[in-house]
Design a protein that fits this description.
Number of helices: 13
Structural class: mainly alpha
Number of domains: 2
Strand content: 5-15%
Bound molecules: tryptophanyl-5'AMP
Mean pLDDT: 93
Strand order of the largest sheet: 1-2-3
Distance between the termini: 31 Å
CATH superfamily of the largest domain: HUPs
Radius of gyration: 21 Å
Length: 338
Amino acid sequence: MGKDKPVILTCAQPTGHLHLGNYLGAIKNWVSLLDDYQCYFGIVDLHAITVPYTPAELRKNTYACLAQYIACGLDPAKCRIFVQSHIIGHTELAWVLGCLTPLGQLQRMTQFKDKARGNDSGSVGSGLLYYPILMAADILLYNADLVPVGDDQKQHLELTRDIAIKFNNTYSPTFKVPEPYKQGSGGRVMSLQDPMNKMSKSETNQSGALFLLDPPDILRKKIMSAVTDTGKEIVAREDKLGITNLLNIMSAVTNRPVPDLEKEFTGQGYAAFKSAVADAVVALFQPIQERYNALMRDKEVLSQVLQEGAADAQKRAYRMISKVYRKAGFVERPSIEE
Ligand code: TYM
């Protein structure tokens, strides 16, 4: 990784399997950045425990997530992939940043309100409220220039920028104020069963999400039963959310503009169109699944990737947290012999 190139950092939670929204809204875009930036990709396990979870599943999913990243094209020779809990500094920085962030700002975060909705406020874990601060720490700890995220994370990135500015004003210029990295298509892939809402790992109806590791017949079944309207036209329009979502998916998967697809499918029924979308998604996922299966048979390679990622990420993180502690007025820590 060229040390003079701008730094890109982004992360994803190792919860469950990655879906088409994660792929199109995130990983596919990350792959295109490897040659031009110093890229850090975090698997954020500390974020994953903000909602109820099973420890054994988390451990399994962390490896599965790493193998899926590599299978999707994140070449470990060109970037650093690390697990958040391996790096000392994320939670330390989060504490310092949290002390600068008004409680009201956290309570106004849409994702917090969504996730806390329906729960008695006394029973919601504090981690869910604190989550955006930890995300700010993930980004600022690496002094990232650019952060590629899907639309759902834009508000958290705005908060990160506010916090960076506040820290710089309170102490002295320390952090770069990170910019969102504008990505191409795929910023918001919607659920196949409820196209008003984004495709998500936690959907109650799992047939709304296309998982990277779903077998071809399941992918086809989910796409063929995607919710559409009663019309016939294959056009992207506000009153046709289901078809619009499928057109956007097809466009992002095949790298063809939506108007071209609308033209190609004029006069063809929904079934023919859905079948073409299914072919395109299966063709995209099949080679990824083959590479994933091979990687999961070789855990040593995966461990090695994490070790190299952690070594590099920790160096960068340590420099930043030391700087922050100095600015915050903490006495220099003594060197501790192991
Ligand atoms: P997470 O794990 O939910 O999602 C990972 C990435 O996938 C994008 N994404 C989508 N894009 C398009 N359509 C969808 N339906 C869709 N669903 C998810 C997300 O925008 C994200 O880019 N809080 C973050 C993880 C995080 C992070 C960070 C990200 C923690 N620290 C620092 C960037 C920088 C999250 O839960 O993403």
